[in-house]
Design a protein that fits this description.
single chain; two-stranded antiparallel sheet; 2 helices; 2 strands
Length: 70
Amino acid sequence: MAPLGKSLLMLGLMVALVGAAIWAAGSLPGVGRLPGDIYVRRGNFTFYFPLATCIVLSIIVTILLSLMRR
């Protein structure tokens, strides 16, 4: 049961770190408003999809996870 406990603890810490990063990202200028993010406003309808932000975050997470594997 010890390996399961360690795995759950690491998963919980990673979720907490991701949550803290998302919380802190709200105060960073430009995050979520990168060129390539799709924003459509027509009348009372608004559609927003952060495409470029998702790609940048995916690259960063991939690099971090590959560094953790080593």
